[in-house]
Specification:
This protein is an alpha+beta fold and about 290 residues long. The protein is built from nine helices and 13 strands. Helix 5 packs across helix 7.
């Protein structure tokens, strides 16, 4: 599994779908392989292995094999409901589609390969605005699909540090209509475990509260930010700095502008190139 960056259209972040945690790992592992400097087509085949998932998540290889096979059998049937166009283009439309058009499980190799469906491609590739980015390693050790989804929703509003959502909308986005009808059960089995995993495994800390409409709890309010190091620095240097214009020396994320310009790939902006170079440097040191 690639340890790179996940890019998703905000419309996909807010889409209505349900995937198991292993299905999420497969999808995200493939999304992290999408190159920023070349267009994605529905003919491209992406592969994830049980060994890669075991290494990334810290799980046993045998467990990864078993879960990979089960996820492969379900993934082809998984649907997603999208309510907006990618890059903020066009009017609001409700689009029901599938994540993938083909899934191939290779038992002897312990791998799963997939092709994204054609309607899904614009939500994953050549995004120029209204998209969310985070590192695959941020969610790799989460074993709750709800935690991964909630983390993405927080990353979408990372600069704001706060996000308020209606419980009704969240149920629809997570496809939990009819489940946990009592708000206390929804908080106990969905929200609280997700919060705990985000706080334990991701670069973000998060707290939450609730807001009532009349006498009914109608909204959840999440307050969050970057976890500091002991010396007060941001825990993950890949995170967006206060200014994307660089520091006084003309550097971006600590990388001189001249280096970024020399190593930038075709069609790659300063920030994307800097993030890629940081990620490559981290992998070389691992």
């Amino acid at each position: 599994m690639d340890s790179g960056l996940v890019y998703k259209s905000n419309a996909l972040i807010e889409a209505s779908y349900r995937l198991s945690v292993y299905e999420q790992r497969i999808i995200l592992g493939c999304i992290a392989q999408v190159r920023r400097d070349e267009p994605l087509t529905d003919q491209r085949l992406y592969t994830v292995s049980a060994q890669q998932i075991a290494d990334m998540t810290g799980t046993q290889l045998g467990t990864a094999y078993q879960n990979l096979k089960a996820a492969a059998e379900r993934l082809f049937r998984r649907e997603v409901t999208l309510h907006e166009a990618p890059n903020g283009q066009g009017g609001a439309k409700i689009r029901l589609t599938r994540w993938v058009q083909e899934v191939v499980y290779q038992k002897d190799q312990g791998t799963i390969a997939l092709r994204f469906s054609q309607p899904m491609v614009p939500y994953l590739s050549q995004l120029t605005e209204q998209f969310t980015r985070y590192a695959l390693t941020d969610v790799a050790r989460m074993d709750s699909a709800h935690a991964i989804r909630l983390y993405e929703l927080l990353c979408q509003w990372r600069d704001a540090g706060q996000r308020e959502v209606s419980i009704e909308w969240l149920r629809e986005a997570f496809q939990l209509e009819g489940k946990y009808p009592a708000i206390k059960d929804f908080k106990r089995w969905v929200i609280q475990p997700a919060i705990e995993q985000i706080n334990e495994h991701s670069p973000l800390w998060v707290k939450w509260d609730q807001r009532k409409t009349g006498r009914r709890v109608s909204h959840l309010v999440f307050t969050f930010g970057e976890k500091p190091r002991q010396n007060g620095e941001i825990a993950d240097k890949r995170r967006k700095p206060k200014s994307t214009k660089g520091d006084a020396k003309g550097a971006l994320y600590g990388i001189p502008r001249a280096v970024i310009e020399a190593q930038a790939q075709p069609g790659e902006g300063y920030e994307d190139a800097a993030l890629r170079l940081l990620d490559e440097a981290r992998r070389r040191q691992a």
